[in-house]
Amino acid sequence: MGRGSGTPELLEDASTDHVIFKLAPGDYSGVSITKAAANQTVEIHGSGPAVTNIQASAAWDATAGNVLYLRKFTTVRIKDCAVRFGAYGCYFREVPNVEISNCRFYNLGSSGSYHAFTVSKTDQATYWAARGTAGAHRSDGGAMRIRSCAEVNISNCVVTDALRGYRIQDCSRGRISDCVAKSVLESGFYLASGSYSGAAGSSNFLISGCAVQDCLNNAYLVIGGSNNTITGCTAVDIASSAVMGWHTQDLKVIGNTFERATRLTWSGIGTDGDSFGCVYSNGGTSISSTGGYMLTCIGNVFTQCGQGRADAVYTFFIGDLQDNSQSSWRLIIDGNNSDAAQ
Question: What is the mean pLDDT of the chain?
Fold first, then answer.
């Protein structure tokens, strides 16, 4: 990859060799490869995220594409790199096994400018409307989009100054541990549904020991899927609800600390934010009963809660769009501490 190394030849459709790229310190161009069938493992090992850079452009450029786009490989492993200056940093699709560790992601989907809470809703919408054009501060991307993969493991990574943080879409299971998202315009950690309903989504994920700071939407967003757990995590200075669950089942929020959430009524792209209470749950489209509980919140700490778009300051806000015909439409809320009046 980059620097004339013959990447396309090593990763052509007929190749089944296990390929490991070991990158010395320096700057490398990204790649976009879609195989006809998943028949090959590829690994990229940098010399450390401070010295090995993989990029779509030499500097921020809103017209640049994804940095690493890899589709239909058996395994993709990335470690010890910085990924920067593009739309999505890592866009991996239809890969049974994805592993990302000790990487730094920045200036992906955003130039990193105008991320402050003082930027108005109107201005944020203007920046977003210009996305993808020459000279713009936004493109439609983020640190990563891991899509339709079976097993996903992400550890010890840092995302800064990006549009989106960790987006995991329609994946079967995995773990995200000891990772950071800071100064992002959309959600820090996002378990996404391609249908934006309970008909799809990522399930069986554990998000543990992670931290979000200065986030202009939800710190932890879950749409669709079931049996996902957020535990031992923190969030500080969050524009919208610290945790948002849309059309999801068996979401567990256990032993976390959230400070100064629901600060604004809008998101970092100038739309109305999901900003109703520190933990907000709503939506029941295309869900089926799991026999469990829609939401379980135990042993969390909420401090300096904001009002957001609600009519008062709430710790928990349960919306009215849910499917209460399901036997798993029920809650466990116990042992939490909050300074919210409601």
Answer: 96
Task: Give the distance from CA 187 to its chain's centroid.
Answer: 6
Residue 128, classed as helix, strand or coil, is helix
Instruction: Say if residues 216 and 267 touch (Cβ distance below 8 Å).
Output: yes
- In the block, tokens 């009046």 appear at 341
The closest of 328, 183, 149, 178 to 167, measured between CA atoms, is 149
Using DSSP bridges, classify how beta strands 158-162 and 31-34 pair: parallel, antiparallel or unpaired: unpaired
CA 145 – CA 88 distance, rounded (Å)? 7
The SS3 of residue 126 is: helix
Give the Cα separation of 1 and 282 in Å (integer): 44
Owner of token pair 């923190």: 234
> What is the H or E stretch that residue 145 is in?
strand 142-147
Tens digit of pLDDT for each residue in 35-73?
A: 999 999 999 999 999 999 999 999 999 999 999 999 999
Q: How far from 232 is each of 114, 148, 209, CA to CA, in Å?
A: 30, 27, 5
pTM for the whole structure: 0.96
Length of the chain: 342
At 84-137, the pLDDT tens digits run 999 999 999 999 999 999 999 999 999 999 999 999 999 999 999 999 999 999
51 token code pair: 């010295």
- First-to-last alpha carbon distance for the chain, in angstroms, is 55
How far is residue 102's CA from residue 307's CA, in Å, rounded to a whole number?
36
